[in-house]
Structures are given as structure tokens and as C-alpha cells.
Write a structure and sequence with these properties.
- By secondary structure, chain A is α/β, with parallel strands linked by helices.
- In chain A, about 40% of the residues lie in helices and about 25% in strands.
- Chain A has a single domain, classed as Response regulator (Rossmann fold, 3-Layer(aba) Sandwich), CATH 3.40.50.2300.
- Chain A has a 5-stranded parallel β-sheet with strand order 2-1-3-4-5.
- The two termini of chain A are about 15 Å apart.
- Chain B is α/β, with parallel strands linked by helices.
- Chain B is about 55% helix and about 20% strand.
- In chain B, strands 2-1-3-4-5 form a 5-stranded parallel β-sheet, with helices on both faces. In chain B, strands 7-6-10-9-8 form a 5-stranded antiparallel β-sheet.
- In chain B, helix 4 links the parallel strand 4 (about 85-90) and strand 5 (about 110).
- The chains are: A alpha/beta, B alpha/beta.
Chain lengths: ~130, ~350
């Protein structure tokens, strides 16, 4: 399989839930998880993926840097910027405006990510 | 010739009966409805003026009466007449004095030997109109003076060159604690903290040259007690008794500022709480909701009782989620108000 999904969330329990849900919806899908934003960034820049379809699911309120900073770094480093799906546990509407300024973002979801939403996410990934 | 049909109530103070009859006759030529009252000396005139049931429209005054005459007579009559125009009747020998009588408040003088019905009538009409104008001007002056003295906000007039107080109103006296005499003995620089004086002088000089540096005009003032207050002032330039002066209107905003600061602080705290609701509290809740969703899937719950309990957990979590969303929506409104989006 040429597709790869990278999960970045500092909430380890949510990471676990996501992994399980993805396993239910797409068993065997190539999945890499990071609870540290720096590690995720390091992996992405050290492992360029030409020809691969790579998607990053990113929590907006990351530990050290927020998702915006993460994306700024990413867009600056890699020529082939992966597609981004943003997740947030916040219900404040102020994030929605910001999302529009980031072209790699293909989806924006409020937590909890349910089985139903996981299915929608895969539809998004496959559509591109 | 058509006669004036308005009713006139006229007092004629004249000791010479012949002169009185002549005036009576002349008046009759132009005025249809004249009520004449004759006094032949000052005391009688005084009595009529005090006791007349209807105020007089005009008074004719012979300048030499048996009991009083000249300047003294004029000042006395004008005092009692209270605004009613006084026309002096005089002979050629008194001409010079008659002219001077105008400065004592007499509204016109008539030479008895030159008298005609027309001159007499014209003098009456002219004097009554003039008295009305004077009355209006005095009332208007009083109104403006009241605006100053009865204003509930402190006001004062100061000399822009010497910076001395020229006049202060009651509210300023009450608010600052200085008596009127004390105010008039100090300068506007004396009612502010010493360290603010230079800045104030700079602003004043700029304003005098037409440069407006700070449209808000907020200053610190100091009361006699030493208490410092924050005030918003409005200054207008005016000519006060031939002096280049500034009229100042003061609005004490010390309390208002204190309230605003408290409210701003409360608002900040409130937004912080709202942010915690929206971001921090919801994170574990989202985790909980995710877990419930996963458990339903993973366990493929068949046992009725456990399924029931799961539903209760889910309903409670959903309810909590709704509450957080409501709070977040309300705090969004406040935040947008803060940013003046409304």
C-alpha cells in the first residue's frame, strides 16, 4: 500500500482510541503515531515520501508548538508537504478562520473522533 | 389719523396743572384708551407706584417737584419704577441736566415747550419697546449666568495669561473644597499634582496656538484635601471682563475609571474561564466520548444491562458536551464585543 497516515497528538489516550478506530475501519492501513510534535517533525523531514500519499492528522493544541506553528515549519522544510487533517477538542469557533489560510489542510474535525468520523476521514484521503 | 387702541396705564408726575392738562390732551389725540394717574409730588408718586393695582406702562416725570428734584428724584423714581420706562419732562433751562439724566436710567426726555402729540406718542412707543429689549437682554444674561452658577458640574473661568481663577461656580467650590475667595487667590496650577504642571502648561500653550495634542483632555486634579482625582475637561476660550480667558467644564471620572478597571479585570478573568471551558475541560470529555464510541464497537454489546449503562454514560457525556458548547458560544459573543465587532 502506498498510502500512509501519521497521527500527532500529545494526548496518549486519544492516540490509542484513534489507532483502534482506524484499525476497525481500515485494518492494516499504514499508521505511524507521535505524541511529540518535535519527533513528528523530525520523522517527516528525515523520511521524504515522493510518490507516496501521506496524510498527517494533527491536534491543534499540541504540547510545545500549536498546529499552526507545526504547519509553518513543515511547509518551510519539505517540498512535498503532506495533506493535513486538523483535530481539536476545543469548541471555540476562532480556529475556523485560521484554517482557511493553510492550503495543505483538507479537513477539520472536532473531537471526539468517532467511528463515523474516521470513515469520513478515509473518504477524504481517498478522494484526493 | 387712526388712534392706538391698546390700553395704556400712565403715571404723570407733574405739579403744574396746566402742563398736566396739556399732556392729557395730547395723549388723547393718538391713544384711545389711556388711563391717567396724576401725582403732583414725589411722595404721592411713590404711593401710586407702590399701590397701583395694575403696573404702569410708562411714567412721565417733571424734573422739579416741590418735595424732590434733580438727580435725587430720578434715582429714587427709577428705583421704585422697577423696569417701567421713565420719560423726563423738562424746560429749556434744564436741557443740559436732561441730557445727563439719560445716563441715570431715564429712557427719554421731552422739552415741554416743544411738545406735540406726535412727539409725545413716539416717545411712549419708543420707551416701552426699549424697556422690553432691556428686559430681554437682562433675562438672557441671567440665563447664561445660571448655566454657569447652577451647573451641577464644576466650572470655572481662568485668565490664560496669569492662570488665575477669575470665577468659579458652586459645584467647583463643593467638589474641590476651596471657598470662592480661596479659589480667586490661587492659580489653576495649584489644583494639580506638582509633577503634572509642566505637561499641563505645554498642552495649554499648544491649545492657545491651535495645536490640539490630546483630544481626550484627561488630567489629574487635586482637591484642597490633597485627594487626587481624574477629570475630563472641556475648555472654551472667551472674553471675560476684557480678559483673554478659558471657560473650563470638569467631569470627575475617578469613580467611573475605577469601575471600568474593575469590570475589565473581571472580564479578563471571565474570558480565561471561558477559554478553560472550551479547551481544557473539553479535552478529557472528548476522550471520554471517543472511548464510549469505541467500546460500543469493540465490545459489540449484547448484554442488555451493560448496553443500558453505556447509554447512560453516553447521554451524560453528551449533556456535559452541550453545556460546554453553550458556555463557549456565550463567551464568543463577549469576545466579539471586546473586539468591537458589534
Amino acid at each position: 500500500m502506498n498510502s500512509e497516515l501519521i497521527l500527532v497528538d500529545d494526548d496518549k489516550v486519544l492516540l490509542l482510541i484513534l489507532q483502534k478506530m482506524i484499525h476497525i475501519v481500515k485494518p492494516g492501513f499504514r499508521l505511524i503515531s507521535f505524541s511529540s510534535d518535535h519527533e513528528a517533525l523530525a520523522y517527516l523531514s528525515e523520511n521524504p515520501s515522493p510518490g507516496k500519499s501521506r496524510t498527517v492528522m494533527l491536534d491543534i493544541n499540541l504540547g510545545e508548538m500549536n498546529a499552526w506553528k507545526f504547519m509553518d515549519e513543515l511547509m518551510g522544510r519539505a517540498a512535498d508537504c503532506p495533506k493535513i487533517i486538523l483535530m481539536t477538542s476545543s469548541v471555540s469557533s476562532s480556529n475556523l478562520e485560521k484554517v482557511k489560510k493553510y492550503s495543505p489542510v483538507i479537513g477539520f474535525f472536532e473531537k471526539p473522533i468517532t467511528i463515523e468520523i474516521t470513515r469520513q476521514i478515509f473518504e477524504l484521503i481517498n478522494m484526493d | 389719523m387712526r388712534k392706538d387702541t391698546k390700553p395704556y396705564n400712565i403715571l404723570i408726575v407733574e405739579d403744574n396743572l396746566g402742563d398736566y392738562v396739556l399732556i392729557e390732551e395730547y395723549l388723547g389725540e393718538n391713544i384711545l384708551d389711556a388711563t391717567l394717574q396724576r401725582a403732583d409730588n414725589f411722595l404721592q408718586a411713590k404711593k401710586f407706584l407702590r399701590q397701583s393695582p395694575r403696573p404702569f406702562d410708562v411714567i412721565f416725570l417733571d424734573l422739579s417737584l416741590p418735595d424732590l428734584s434733580g438727580e435725587h428724584l430720578i434715582t429714587q423714581i427709577i428705583k421704585i419704577a422697577t423696569g417701567c420706562p421713565v420719560i423726563a419732562l423738562t424746560g429749556f433751562s434744564d436741557l443740559e441736566f436732561s441730557i445727563r439724566s439719560l445716563s441715570l436710567g431715564v429712557s427719554d426726555y421731552l422739552l415741554k415747550d416743544d411738545l406735540t402729540p406726535t412727539i409725545l406718542y413716539k416717545s411712549i412707543i419708543y420707551s416701552i419697546q426699549r424697556a422690553k429689549f432691556i428686559d430681554q437682554i437682562q433675562k438672557s444674561e441671567k440665563r447664561y449666568s445660571n448655566l454657569f452658577h447652577l451647573s451641577p458640574l464644576p466650572m470655572w473661568v481662568f485668565d490664560v495669561e496669569t492662570l488665575e481663577f477669575l470665577d468659579v461656580n458652586r459645584a467647583a467650590i463643593d467638589h474641590y473644597g476651596y471657598s470662592k475667595e480661596e479659589f480667586l487667590a490661587i492659580k489653576i496650577t495649584d489644583i494639580r499634582p506638582a509633577e503634572d504642571v509642566d505637561e499641563m502648561k505645554k498642552i495649554l500653550n499648544n491649545a492657545l496656538m491651535g495645536i490640539i495634542t490630546d483630544s481626550k483632555n484627561v488630567f489629574r486634579h487635586q482637591k484642597k484635601s490633597g485627594e487626587t482625582i481624574v477629570v475630563e475637561v472641556t475648555v472654551s476660550r472667551l472674553n471675560f471682563n476684557e480678559k483673554d480667558a478659558g471657560l473650563v467644564l470638569v467631569n470627575d471620572i475617578t469613580e467611573r475609571n475605577r469601575y471600568i478597571k474593575t469590570i475589565e479585570k473581571q472580564n479578563e478573568t471571565f474570558l480565561e474561564i471561558a477559554w478553560i471551558q472550551s479547551h481544557v475541560v473539553r479535552a478529557p470529555l472528548a476522550r471520554l466520548l471517543g472511548l464510549v464510541d469505541l467500546m460500543e464497537m469493540e465490545l459489540k454489546v449484547k448484554n442488555g444491562e451493560i448496553a443500558n449503562l453505556m447509554n447512560h454514560i453516553k447521554d451524560s457525556a453528551d449533556e456535559l458536551d452541550q453545556i460546554i458548547r453553550d458556555i463557549s458560544k456565550k463567551s464568543d459573543i463577549i469576545e466579539r464585543m471586546d473586539n468591537h465587532e458589534f
